[in-house]
């Protein structure tokens, strides 16, 4: 068995991650986000183990080589199925297998996985052990600090102790409870209060284990502050709604001296990417829906959003729509500078 300190060292470079988000972080979103940062860890949407095993693997799990480093997040509670899904993820070329123990949606609860697994930490530990036995990749867990009326001191400690004893390489913690009854998934992202100190305490108790934090982090400055207390920071909606936030991640978090991509280069790449996707039978809107927040708060941003949200949905729409929208931004920037 690999010593805990060695596992921590193997994983410690993953200091910044974009959170897995259902219906959002698909392969086109990841391809877009990768244009802003070479080093941030990107995650798939949650993939149910049964879908990975029995579904169309290229459609469900396929990704481009340029997305690396990229991890697959699995959902499930059957150790054998999760082990098989983990083997599939490894064979597909992912660099990490993550188990979802944090999603509070009704459909996840009905499958007895996601956040409801906080109530059965021994099951989570068995699942992690099975996945660790199945693959050579890092196996990690993303959880909440507790659910419903659980005591977060007890619940999070039990979950963490179980998964680390089972061999988990990292624990990413969304620093809120999840309320399985009475709150929608959207409300569960905002209403339960954040408790960052609870995650900090967990790290102090587990100095040789990788502990990452997630939940309500809005800026890169906030992310850097969290890194004074934990090993990694994960942003979700803030990055999705304002992808420009990713431009400074490599320099600020990883100390990279490589120049960030220019906006012109990012637009050129996404136009080429879009046209290739369309040539394979896809639609422009599959890609542009992830790009509408790019110029958040900038001159011309409203018109950018309008063009991408309407024109990209027209029949035969191609990359010319993106270039036309970008032309509006360039004109707006020039007008403001004049």
TrEMBL record:
The keyword tRNA-binding appears for this protein: yes
Enzyme Commission designation: 1.3.1.91
Q: Does the keyword Flavoprotein apply?
A: yes
Could you list this entry's UniProt keywords, alphabetically sorted: Flavoprotein, FMN, NADP, Nucleotide-binding, Oxidoreductase, RNA-binding, tRNA processing, tRNA-binding
Q: Which GO terms describe its molecular function?
A: flavin adenine dinucleotide binding; FMN binding; tRNA binding; tRNA-dihydrouridine20 synthase activity; tRNA-dihydrouridine20a synthase activity
Query: Which of this chain's residues are annotated to bind FMN?
Result: 73, 142, 174, 214-216, 236-237
Q: Which Gene3D superfamilies match?
A: 1.20.120.1460, Aldolase class I
> Which reaction is recorded as catalysed by this protein?
5,6-dihydrouridine(20a) in tRNA + NAD(+) = uridine(20a) in tRNA + NADH + H(+); 5,6-dihydrouridine(20) in tRNA + NAD(+) = uridine(20) in tRNA + NADH + H(+); 5,6-dihydrouridine(20a) in tRNA + NADP(+) = uridine(20a) in tRNA + NADPH + H(+); 5,6-dihydrouridine(20) in tRNA + NADP(+) = uridine(20) in tRNA + NADPH + H(+)
Q: Where is the DUS-like FMN-binding domain?
A: 18-317
Q: Tell me the enzyme class.
A: oxidoreductase
Cofactor(s) recorded in Swiss-Prot or TrEMBL: FMN
In this UniProt entry, which residues are annotated as the site Interacts with tRNA?
Answer: 100, 186, 189, 302, 305
Record-annotated active site = 103 (proton donor)
Matching entries from HAMAP family are given as: DusA_subfam
User: What PANTHER family is this protein classified in?
Assistant: FMN-LINKED OXIDOREDUCTASES SUPERFAMILY PROTEIN
Q: Give the protein's biological function.
A: Catalyzes the synthesis of 5,6-dihydrouridine (D), a modified base found in the D-loop of most tRNAs, via the reduction of the C5-C6 double bond in target uridines. Specifically modifies U20 and U20a in tRNAs.
Q: What family does the Swiss-Prot or TrEMBL record give for this protein?
A: Belongs to the Dus family. DusA subfamily.
Spell out the protein name for this chain.
Answer: tRNA-dihydrouridine(20/20a) synthase
